Structures are given as structure tokens and as C-alpha cells.
Amino acid sequence: MRTIGNILWFLLGGVFMGLLWWLAGLICILTIICIPWAKSCFIIGTFTFFPFGKEAVKRNELTFKEDIGTGFLGMIGNVVWFIFAGIWLALGHLASALACFVTIIGIPFGIQHIKLAVISLAPIGQTIVKKY
């Protein structure tokens, strides 16, 4: 079922939001100072292509230790991200969610877009794991 959901997701719009995440990552790399944000963009962009069967978790909850992305610097990075890119990616996911909610079959996709909108507000310090 996850495979079918991921294929439908990809074909019916997931590819566009994933490409937007990757575009944000490329812009971060070009500015050089934003390279730390680029890694999060590519990880979550790949997650956006095929989200079913996976979930985003905070790295410190997974590894039980703090790192640069889960501490104070990660919080500052997320604030900067929110102002310059996070709000725009979140609005894109919310617009996609509204479009999905129009049809009954699109409701699971709309719910996934809302989850991705929340992730897009503060992606630093998160990682993607398989859901069992």
C-alpha cells in the first residue's frame, strides 16, 4: 500500500514540492553561507518525493545526544530558515493540501502535505526514518 501511495503522491504533485525543496537547497549552496541549511533541504526534499512509510524525527530523540543542529545553534538556524524560506515552503504545502482536500481520495495526500508544512517551518535538527 505504501508503494502505491508513494507512486500516486509522486505523480500527482509530490514531485513539484520535492523539486522546490531541492531548489531551496541549491540556492543555499550558491550563497555559501547557507550551506548548513542545504543538507536539510536535500534530505527533506527526498522525503517529500516519497513520504509514505517514513517520518521526520528530531535527531536528539533518535540518538539521545545533542549535536550542532539540535542545540542552540540549530534553534537560531531554524529561526533564520523560518524567516527566509520556511514560511514559503509551508505555504506551498498548505496550498497543495487544500487542493488535495477537494477530493475524497486526496485526503491522505492533504494530511501528508500538512505534516510536511510543519516540518518545513523548522527542518534543522530533524532526520528521516522508516516507519514500521
From TrEMBL:
Primary site of residence: membrane
Signal peptide interval: none
Cell location: Cell inner membrane
TM ranges: 7-24, 30-50, 71-88
GO CC terms of this entry: plasma membrane
Alphabetic keyword roster: Cell inner membrane, Cell membrane, Membrane, Transmembrane, Transmembrane helix
Keyword presence, Repeat: no
Membrane topology: Multi-pass membrane protein
Inner membrane component domain span: 4-54, 76-126
PANTHER family assigned: INNER MEMBRANE PROTEIN YCCF (PTHR42903:SF1)
Protein name: Inner membrane protein YccF
Organism: Vibrio algivorus
